[in-house]
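Subject: Protein record for review, amino acid sequence with backbone structure tokens
Why sent: The fold of this protein is of interest and is recorded here as tokens.
Enclosed: The protein record, placed directly beneath this head.
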Amino acid sequence: MCSIGRRSDADLSSSAAAVFHFLRQPAIRAQAAIPASALFRFPYFQYHENVETKEAVTALGALAQDSRLSIFRLLVRHEPEGLTVGVIGERLELPVPTLSFHLKTLAQAGLVSAGQEGRFVRYRARLEGIDALVAFLTEDCCGGHPERCMPKESP
């Protein structure tokens, strides 16, 4: 296979990123008649530099599993004291190895924290992690008019 004139994957990623950021500008897209949705049809244009986006995807992925969502909700109910691994396992009827795997995933996503207390490990929900996720998801809510997004009071 001839490699003359071929670019490395790193070169392609960086070139694609530059083109993607250039084409994201509304004035450029309008001149070229390119709809924003067209940019995501090509694999190289799915490049994201935004760390917040990666963190949000990690957190949402961690919560997108029944057991992990149940663990997180249980820990939220028991804030600020948290729960030990044994109590979480008993309440949710999860074996310790499975529970450890799920807690590790939630911790890596920044949604729970662990603290050693003697022989026990106590887990707590990191509410600032979920607050940051909600803030990220609603950052541009209602086109910059957050007052439109306020929950309606029930009668």
Remarks:
- Strands lie at 83-84, 112-117, 120-125.
